[in-house]
Amino acid sequence: MKKLAVLLLTVFTLTMILAACGNGGTATSTTKGDGSAAPASEGASDTKTGKPKIAVILKTLNSPFWTEMRDGIKKEAEEKGIDVEIFAAQDETDLQGQVKIFEDILSRDFDGVAVAPLTPVNLIPSIVQANKKGIYVVNIDEKINMNELKNAGGYVLAFATSDNEKIGAQGAKAIVDALGKQGGEVAIIEGKAGNASGESRKKGAESAFAAASQIKLVDSQPADWDRQKALDVAANLLQRYPNLKGIYAANDTMALAAQQAVENAGKAGQVVVVGTDGDQEARDSVAAGSLYATIAQDPAEIGITSLNKLIDAINTKKQGSVDAEPETVWIDAKLITKK
Q1: Are 313 and 134 within 8 A, CB to CB?
Q2: Which site from 85, 110, 180, 257 is most exposed, i.e. has the minimal number of CB atoms within 10 Å?
């Protein structure tokens, strides 16, 4: 009986050990309190499932534009049964923080990474390293300086974004149309100086204003995408140019601040303010008859397109090249007015 008991105990122990060894896990994406993704559990891997393992680096999660993009990516990934980890810098000045995120990703076994760089050049060395490791790279929203990237020996497969110059022109054209034949003085509140998206929107707005003979562009100042700075800039513009009739802002955060400055100055209904991005707060303001219009981008679709480009490249084992021109995918933006 003792020998039988020992034999049964041995068999039971071996069975439990084998069961534990066979219970392999799959890496899952978790999210920290700041909205960035936490590392998957140690030892977990997608190699057993054959699913692509993808990372996404956004600029920040401090604005609705980026949170909508994150949510769109997460929903698409869930529908496709793919694990995606989403990271973001603390804010749009955290250049080194974004580089560190990319460096950490390079030390793990990702198949692809989609990046929205804070500047056209800050992630170029990391992209070159990703290329060397065979990690596919897709560019989101803020265009990388492709000449600098090529000179460094790197490349991306695709670039998904809205046409920011066209967006700026749409915003300015909305002001021109609202002012009609009478026209008047207008101003631009820019994003952060040197930021490619903001500079393109500014350029588009300048072109549209210049094309209208009844419009005079009197000033253009940066407010760094910041609400308080935009409030101060708009207040100064209204004081300096008492006949100002229109303000185009390169994002909705600054547009809402400009509208507040207009109302604070007792000029509600006298100055047409148009923003950019189509944030919900801006849409609500337009519906209420406060903000005149916003140019609504589709950040979720931009993110989804980027994700699908990576999935396709991974599944088809697409070959990239320094000399190949990246595929550009334009995502349309629409003018949103009270009408």
Answers
A1: no
A2: 180
Closest CA to 271 of 204, 175, 191: 175
Distance CA 164, CA 248 (A): 14
CA atoms within 13 A on the CB side of 80: 19
Domain count, the chain: 2
SS3 content of the chain, % helix, strand, coil (to 5): 45, 20, 35
Cα-based distances in Å from 63 to 29, 58, 108, 206? 22, 11, 28, 25
Give residue 244's domain range: 164-296
What's the predicted TM-score (pTM) here? 0.69
Asked if residue 148 lies in contact with residue 121, where contact means CB atoms within 8 angstroms, the answer is yes
Written as one letter, the residue type at 300 is: A
**Which one-letter amino acid corresponds to residue 51?**
K
Taking phi over 0 as left and psi of -120 to 50 as alpha, with beta for the rest, 175 belongs to alpha
pLDDT (tens digit per residue) in 279-337: 899 999 999 999 999 999 899 999 999 999 999 999 999 999 999 999 999 999 999 99
Do both 140 and 56 map to the same domain?
yes
Token digits for 25? 């896990």
Give the model's pLDDT for residue 64.
Answer: 86
Question: Is 37 part of a structural domain of the chain?
Answer: no
In contact, 333 and 167? CB cutoff 8 Å = yes
- Please give the C-alpha separations between residue 218 and each of 170, 235, 268, 306, in angstroms, as whole numbers: 19, 15, 20, 38
